[in-house]
Amino acid sequence: MARIAGVNIPTNKRVEIALTYIHGIGRTKARDICGKLGFPIERRVHQLTDAEVIQIRELIDSEFVVEGDLRREVAMNIKRLMDLATYRGLRHRRGLPVRGQRTHTNARTRKGKAKPIAGKKK
Known about the structure:
Layout: E1 2-4, E2 7-9, H1 15-18, H2 27-37, H3 50-63, H4 67-84, H5 87-94, H6 108-111
Antiparallel strand pairs: 1-2
Family: Belongs to the universal ribosomal protein uS13 family.
Keywords: Ribonucleoprotein, Ribosomal protein, RNA-binding, rRNA-binding, tRNA-binding
InterPro entries: Rbsml_uS13_C, Ribosomal_uS13, Ribosomal_uS13-like_H2TH, Ribosomal_uS13_bac-type, Ribosomal_uS13_CS
């Protein structure tokens, strides 16, 4: 198992797909990494040499914010909005949709399971 940025990436998958297991690296960034290092598209993780894994690790460390640092940065951005009491910060604090979605119906992902209200029936 190759360990990159503190994550064990799967060995039987293509390098491009396996890199997406790292928080902060999606398909586009994974393709960029493979392109910069000159790996063929069909290359699998178990076919990589130790030197190639080190190359990937060094490139990610130098050019991308990933895993713990990225999670911390996002959490600090949300905390800043909440401390400033901006509209977005208040929505985060109340657990409601932040980006303008309707809440009369739907929004169950943010609001959680529907709670019955006593005395609502007519």
